[in-house]
Design goal:
The protein is an alpha/beta fold. The protein has one domain: Glycogen Phosphorylase B (Rossmann fold). The protein has 9 helices and 6 strands, in the order αβαβαβαβααβαβαα. The radius of gyration is 17 Å and the shape is globular.
Length: about 190
Amino acid sequence: MADLLSNLYNKKFDVIPNYSLKEQIGPDSKKGSDHRITEFLIKGNAHPEREFEKFIFSWAHTNKNAILNFRCPSNEYLEKLKAYAKKSKARNRIRFSNPVSQSELISAASSSDIGIIPYDGSVHIGYKYCCPNKLSEYMAAGLAIVHFNINYVSRKCQEFGIGFEINWENFSDQINDICKNQELYQSME
């Protein structure tokens, strides 16, 4: 399909898998982990409209037990983020994990505690009304979910009691509150 569109429009198109199977979850990789640490996962393609640099900047104001893990395919923007993270006061708590194949997405995600859906509806109208694959993948991996005001995601997280809606104005305080309440986010898994 990408090749067909590339030829038709004389522009490069890429293919991104649109689903993962729940059966791809391996054994519970959280067993035996240090529960004083809370790992937040951002996965998927790194793109400037997703404003990942805001996460890196804000992470310097979060508790020392909050880990931010980016699991994204390599691209120019991700390389800029890595350089930016090295300068952050939170550089020891910001990680960049290797990307995994589509068949390993859920299993790899299950080693984190909380999945972040990084789309901010105020940045792009497509984000405000999206139904991201990350939602079902994080749910299948047994993660609590942190998200911005995204209509569908907000409704589903509220309906199933599986997430926290956040905003940039109080971002660090909200992340800190989540870290302090491990029983609550672990009950959402």
